[in-house]
Amino acid sequence: MNEPKSLLIRDGRIIDPAQGLDETASLVITEGKIAWLGRGDPPRTDSEVIDGRGLVVTPGFIDLHCHLRQPGFEEKETIASGSRAAAAGGFTTICGMPNTEPPLDSPETISYVKRTAAREAVVRVLPIGCISQGRKGERLVDMKALVNAGAIAFSDDGSPVPGADLMLKALEVSRSLEVPIIDHCEDTSLSEGGVMNEGALAHRLKLKGIPAAAEESIIARDLALAEETGGHIHIAHVSTAGGVKLIRRAKERGVRATAEVTPHHLTLTEERVAGYDTSAKVNPPLRTKVDTQALLEGLKDGTIDIIATDHAPHTEAEKSREFALAPFGISGLETALGSLMGLVHSGNLNLTILIAKLTTEPARIIGGRYGELGTLKIGAPAEITIFDPDMERVVDPQAFASKGKNTPLAGSKLKGKVVATIAGGRLVYRHSSLKITKAAAERTELTR
Ligand code: DOR
Ligand code: ZN
């Protein structure tokens, strides 16, 4: 009677890159852990059952880069609403950037995020600490104290680290702490006042451009500093073909570098801003077809390790300002899988690689501190995403769990939809189409 509840996911296509697994099989969750995985009949339990036929079952997605806005900008998003958006998008672990108010530059603010998340979030929230005090780019935070409080990485994201000397110090300290330094690579002396990709289109629209060199020059600097110090640099939201090339060469030399690309930089180009659509205004800006192709190549050959959403919610009032004045950012948690599945359906990306970039690879960057993340190995915490690869939907931002309705995909048709998300052994998101039956009923049905 008081038996622990268990859940059986039967006959789904289970993909777990960490175990080299891609097969139709079943999986049992008991007491918040993966208890059994295999073909054929699972052990008898008093389970609820999800019929996995036609569905893909993977480790819960991990987002190394999103903006949860709390403390300070709760009108844009909260830890609670951001976590529900994550669950709806299939993410069971999300890492929050520290450009909040106050910024996450002290053990107290890191603890505040952890406490609030423990109380209100439906998925695991891991905070990222600032590199510089107050995000001012001047003095290094007490990195050790922040790691002890729970910071899993450091970044001044939203802004670059302007001085090479500060970046050098951060990389040096990070080495002994075993955490990555994540940089938003932008030379602001080149990008100042820019609102979109620099090029012919920017000239035609009479908007100030952000050149590729603003990103590439800082990527080159950071890679040199990582090489010098042996520290781990993680390049956030790579958007240019030149950036991919620099990272590829550095990795060949053995530099300790990892990199991420967002779903929007992989799938959208600058043409999206042609109608002065502020929902496509993002930093770094959407670039060109040459860039999206290079990013995809980089993703496939391992130059780019992971996909991260850079979920950046803003209010409708802010995004209603004229193009030059609206804030940068795209609300991305709830459209990530659907837009990325577009690349799979068109034959441009292998599904297993896509899943690895959302699970195994980000888990590797975060490290082992939080138990075994990003895998469905027996004994691992039950963090599972179930999606229908073929379900179509028209994106309706008003139906988002996120407070951020700012997406250039509003009204677009996406194919591939998360139908269930299990985090910490609990079903934290369920699409209306998903049927869950009691095992007893299922047994009767099977013997009929
Ligand atoms: O588009 C962006 N939005 N890029 C950033 O660097 C910051 C982010 C935000 O915080 O809104
Ligand atoms: Zn960001």
Description:
A hairpin with a 4-residue loop joins strand 1 (6-16) and strand 2 (21-30). This protein is α/β, with parallel strands linked by helices and 448 residues long. Strands 1, 2, 3, 4, 5, 16, 17, 18 and 19 form a 9-stranded mixed beta sheet that branches. It is built from 15 helices and 19 strands. It starts with 5 loop residues before the first strand and ends with a helix. It has one domain: Metal-dependent hydrolases (TIM Barrel), CATH 3.20.20.140. The protein is globular, with a radius of gyration of 21 Å. The structure holds (4S)-2,6-dioxohexahydropyrimidine-4-carboxylic acid and zinc ion (ZN). (4S)-2,6-dioxohexahydropyrimidine-4-carboxylic acid is lined by residues 67, 99, 157-158, 184, 282-283, 312, 327-329.
Structure summary:
With 448 residues, the protein is an alpha/beta fold.
Shape type: globular
Unreliable runs: 443-448
CATH class: Alpha Beta
Oligomer: single chain
Which helices and strands occur, and which strands form pairs?
Blueprint: E1 6-16, E2 21-30, E3 33-38, E4 47-51, E5 56-59, E6 61-66, H1 79-89, E7 91-96, H2 107-120, E8 124-127, H3 143-149, E9 154-155, H4 164-177, E10 181-183, H5 188-191, E11 196-197, H6 200-205, E12 209-210, H7 212-229, E13 233-235, H8 241-252, E14 257-261, H9 263-267, H10 289-301, E15 306-307, H11 316-319, H12 336-345, H13 351-358, H14 360-366, E16 384-394, E17 413-423, E18 426-430, E19 436-438, H15 439-447
Parallel strand pairs: 1-4, 1-5, 6-7, 7-8, 9-10, 10-13, 11-12, 13-14, 14-15
Antiparallel strand pairs: 1-2, 2-3, 4-19, 5-16, 16-17, 17-18
Helix pairs in contact: 2-3, 4-7, 7-8, 8-10
Bound molecules: (4S)-2,6-dioxohexahydropyrimidine-4-carboxylic acid (DOR) and zinc ion.
Residues 67, 99, 157-158, 184, 282-283, 312, 327-329 line the site of (4S)-2,6-dioxohexahydropyrimidine-4-carboxylic acid.
